[in-house]
Structure formats: structure tokens, C-alpha cells
Amino acid sequence: MMVYSMTGYGRATAQNGNISAEVEVKSFNSRFLDLSLKLPKILADKELEIRNTLKERIKRGKVIVNIYIEKNGLSNKIAVIEENNLKSLIEVLNELRDKADVKTEISLENLLSFQNLIFSDQIADNTQEFEVAGKALNDAIINLLEMREEEGATLVKDLKARLNLISKSVEEIEKLHPVELTSYYEKLKNRAKELLQDLNQYDDRLKMELALLSEKYDVTEECIRLKSHLEQFNNALGNGDEVGRRLNFIIQEMNREANTINSKSISTIITNIGINIKEELEKIREQIQNIE
User: Is 176 helix (H, G, I), strand (E, B) or coil?
Assistant: First the structure.
């Protein structure tokens, strides 16, 4: 399965006889599928069908669709002209002009003041227009998805590289932690020597303190869970198909484990590694906002 970006652009044209259509589809990041359509009036009654077509092919994102129809050289004809009403209107206006003794000619602006009379609310038969627009829409969606797929592949490559860096950092923490814990204990022990002349009588207490330190600052479980989340993230990328929401959940869990590791750190080295992990996780979080 492919991973798709939510950012893309597609454009296509189609023609059949004297009817041509141009369709432009743009998509951007969005938590849900948000469709915005700009249609010519001739296709106003086809909006639901067009929306359903888009929903079948696109699952997430802010999607803007513009459809342009041209017939007999006229673009996006807005309405059917009622020719009989237009002729009657002109006759009435001419009669009014004569009776009022007005010398000016009737203008287009005068006629457009009576749009409710000269334009019909009924939409003409749009079967051919819809067929041509449908062909252009299908091709535009294909172009859009191809661009989203290409960007999705680039995102996956970047994400896997960052996951690999985090995985290596976790392995480094696992190796360093026992050494750093022992070093921390020795520092405490040396500090105690400065305060007490004889530590032998406190040997049992020191061993207990070491055990308590080991338990309090142990990050083994956090490292195990973080590695498990890394594997889940990788598997999700391989599954594709609307993976964005799942990745968002996994990255939240990874951040939780990274925060706990940092809070338990008793070593500057481990703290710095933890900060690097957090930086990579933030970059990943930003990237996956653009995944469908």
C-alpha cells in the first residue's frame, strides 16, 4: 500500500464536439475530508454526484475543485435565456420610452435589471456537459493522486531515515545507562567518604542505595516500549491506506517515552541523546501532518 501526502495538484481537459471542460483539483492539509466545489450553473444539479466521486478517491485533506465548461465558444453559460420574455420586455421598454419621451436607447444594463424575466431558473439538459466534465474530473484526480503519491514516497523516505536515527540513539542509551548509573553511584560514594571517615559500617546501606538508584532511574522499560513504537510506526508506513491518524497516535506515545527517559536521566550524555530524540520526534510529527 502506498502512503499519500495530502498536498497535491491535478488539472485535466476533455472535449466532445462543441463541448469542452477544464477541471482543476487542489488539495491541502486537513484533519478531515473538506470539499469545496466551484461549478458552472449547468452542472449545479450534479454537485452531489461530483462530491461522491471525490469521496471515493480521496480520504483526507482540504480539496478545492474548479470546473469550467465551454459550449459553442461560450464559457460557463450561466442560464437559459427566455427569448419570448426578452422580446416582450424590449417591446414594453420601448413603449415606456416613447410615452415618456425619452431619447436614449435601451441598454444591456437596462435589460439586466430584469434578470428574473429573461433568464430561466430551469437548467437545460446537461447530460453531455456532465459526461465531458466527468472525464476531465477523473483525469484531474489521477494527476492529483500521482503527485500526492510521489510526495508521500518522499515523506516515507525521510521518516524512515529519522526513525533509524532514533533507533540508534535508543540502543546507545541502553549501552550507556548501566555505565552511567555505576559512575553516578561512585560519585555519591566518594562524596560520602568525604563526609564519613569509615564507610565499612555503612556498606549494607550503600548497597541498598545502589539498588534504589537502579530502580528509580532505570529506563529499560521505556527503551523497550520506544523500540516497540518504532516498529509499529515502520509497520504502519508499510500498510499505507489512511495511515496519518495512526501515525499521529504512535508519535504521541513515542514522545511520552522520550520524556520519561529524559526525566530519569542522571547523565549529561544520556540527556543530550534524549534531547536529540525529542528533536527528531518533533520533525516527524510535523511531517506526518501532511500524510493522508
Answer: helix
Q: Where are the domains of the chain?
A: 8-77+124-150, 80-120, 151-288
* Most distant CA pair in the chain, distance: 125
Amino acid found at 47? E
**Whole-angstrom distance, CA of residue 261 vs CA of residue 252:** 15
Tens of pLDDT along 203-230?
666 666 655 666 677 888 899 999 999 9
Distance CA(50)–CA(138), nearest Å, equals 10
Q: How do residues 225-284 score in pLDDT, each as one tens digit?
A: 999 999 999 999 887 667 888 999 999 999 999 999 998 888 888 899 999 999 999 999
DSSP 290: T
Closest CA to 27 of 62, 67, 79: 62
- Is the separation of the CB atoms in 84 and 46 below 8 Å? no
User: Can you tell me which residue has the cell 523500540?
Assistant: 227
| CATH node for 8-77+124-150 | 3.30.230
Integer CA distances (angstroms), 134 to 20, 49, 62, in order: 11, 10, 20
Beta-bridged to residue 25, according to DSSP, are 10, 65
> In the chain, at which residue ranges do the beta strands (DSSP E only) sit?
8-16, 19-28, 33-38, 61-71, 74-75, 80-81, 119-120
Angle between helices 203-216 and 127-195 (to 10 degrees): 170
Q: Is residue 128 within a helix (H) or strand (E), and if so which, with residue range?
A: helix 127-195
Is residue 223 a contact partner of residue 173, using CB atoms and an 8 Å limit?
yes
Mean pLDDT, the chain, integer: 85
